[in-house]
Amino acid sequence: MREAFLSILFFFISSIILGQSKFDKKNASIAHRLPDSALQKPGEKGVLTADLRYLFMATDNRQGLTDYAANALGAGLKYTTGNFHGFSIGAGIYACINIRSSVLTEPDPLTGQINRYEITLFDVIHPEKKLVGGIGELFLKYRWRDSYVSIGRQLINTPFINMQDGRMRPNEAGGVYAEMRAAKKIKISLGYLWEMLPRSTNDWGSISKTIGAYPQGVTVNGTKSGYAGSLKSKGILMAGVNGSFGTKGELNLQLSEVFVENIFNT
Question: What is the DSSP string of 156-184?
Fold first, then answer.
């Protein structure tokens, strides 16, 4: 039932992109991948943006090891309402199809390891799925002057937590995030995140649950790490200051702080 729904969703989005529907043509190819703050200004009407992308990836290993190839086709659709007394609502949906690929779930006979790179085009947690997608962004935003605060599931772009949009679906964050203009050339950002949807996955989860979705590396003594599923955290606190100085803004200073409760601080 879910795959049937996603198939309909994918072709519905594709028909809008390829048709003559009204949407943001200037940013059509990248729009739903951008933070909403980059697309809409106060007072504008609602904005419909869309994205259609195809990615091919292949790994040619040395003789005796398994070679891989994957073809992925994805589509996304996002709508942000116009501002009503400073308030707006945004929602985005997404779907990706594994068109034709190598078997990515079978371990290599020699190394015993499964595919590492091509699998990231789809869902690294459930790589057997041929069709993934669903609701991504869903947020409420309030704007005033050159500042805004947003709550819900959204795309954010900070030095430590950002979209990393090099595959079919970017990192998405759930929480409260604000950017405020403290002076003409100084911007302050604050945020609290309680959930994430990591790139190349398809399910939202708490901060502690999503850490470890990718290969976990090794410990200091060389043994395999096993922290996935063993961490506890109430979320992420973020703060940042970005300022431009000089007559032409030739000097840029950026300070960032990220505190992942009970795990690390940087």
Answer: ---SSS----SSSS--EEEEEEEEEEEET
